[in-house]
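TL;DR need structure tokens for one chain.
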Amino acid sequence: MIALTIVKLIKYQKGALSKIEIFGLLIIAVIISFVGRDMFSDWKNHIIYSSDDISVIARVNRTMFGNRCDICICRNGAVMKKVDEPLALQSDYDPIEKHYYEVLEDEQELTIRVKCSEDSSRYEEVTIEI
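>> reply
TL;DR here they are.
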């Protein structure tokens, strides 16, 4: 994007674009490049369950737009897939760090219960088939 803007700048330097339009294009290109890099987010990975076969990781993502918790399955050290929809969290709240979660294990499924708000007594449930 930045290279395209510079090419446009060189091509239209003789007066087709005014200086303010060129400056505006450069500002837009810089903003787009920063937003694409997720510079406003902070990830924390927590292993909440581990066995010989799989591991379950809770990723807590804090951004300036909102916080969420993704539950992911890992096999052989690689993240295989996200499970269900992300859970919405309060700002500056990490339920995994504060141990506001439960892992219930059955023979064929794993149920993860996460408390998404400190003030609430409800737990959101995510079920994983093993």
